[in-house]
Design a protein that fits this description.
Order of helices and strands: HEEEEE
CATH class: Mainly Beta
Mean pLDDT: 91
Number of domains: 1
Number of helices: 1
CATH topology: SH3 type barrels
Distance between the termini: 19 Å
Amino acid sequence: MTIANTTLQLGDSAIKIASALTGKTVRYLNEKNSSVTSNGVRTFKIKEVDDVFVSKQSGRKCVTVHVQDIDDGGQAKHRTLHLSGISSIN
């Protein structure tokens, strides 16, 4: 499965995924309600990727990242994102 608007695949290596996401701005659809945006779509600037893994709970491929939260005044945060929840990478 392709990740967002790229040629990245969910089966690609962790190094390839981390390299492709570092320094990029992503649009992400939260699974739960967002306290920051009404539609649940979030924008994060990925500063660093800590880990690429498969969730034991959901079985989906995820990344743990340090981000600048564009929707929340640019605050620095740690987030875990499902790769399938990323709708665009710029």
